[in-house]
Amino acid sequence: MPLTPNPLPRFLLGLLIFMPLCMAVWWFGLRDILLLLLLQVTELVATEGLADKILAISPSQNNVWILQTSLSPINDPSSLLGIPIATSRFTISFPLLWGLLLATPNTDKFKQMVWGTVVLIPITVLIALLTIQFKLALQINYQQILTEMPRGEYLLVRPYSETVYYLMAVGRQLATLVLPT
What we know:
Low-confidence stretches: none
Largest sheet: 3 strands, antiparallel
Oligomer: single chain
Strand content: 5-15%
Structural class: mainly alpha
Radius of gyration: 20 Å
Strand order of the largest sheet: 1-2-3
Shape: elongated
Order of helices and strands: HEEEHHH
């Protein structure tokens, strides 16, 4: 009775080779491009969906987006508030998926990578939107929730109800802990 080769060592070897390779390609080559494309789609959806609060989303330094709002601080009603949004983890799921698919002993890897990437695009946009909505709600309600503290400005806007605020925090947890992995 012939022994069939165990695919687990091949998969583990593939992970050792392809996961660092995909992470390096993403970090040094594709991260900024993916974030720029994500910024365009997210800004379109966010400004349409929350047009009364979000004016634009613009890139800043160190992979940070500035959420330009129509909200004014109490101490300076003539100015508008900009909220920084850290974007480092928004596109991390792409190289993780690519590394796992390349490490899997399979013959149709390219097709799986294309379909997997297509499926991840709306999930990545959802991650960005949930994060933006939570950061906005954090500033509007001006109360600590989870591990987040609001910035120094009180806003001239009616706060969300406690239930809605906690639901937004659940969305933030979903975007931070569940969706990227």
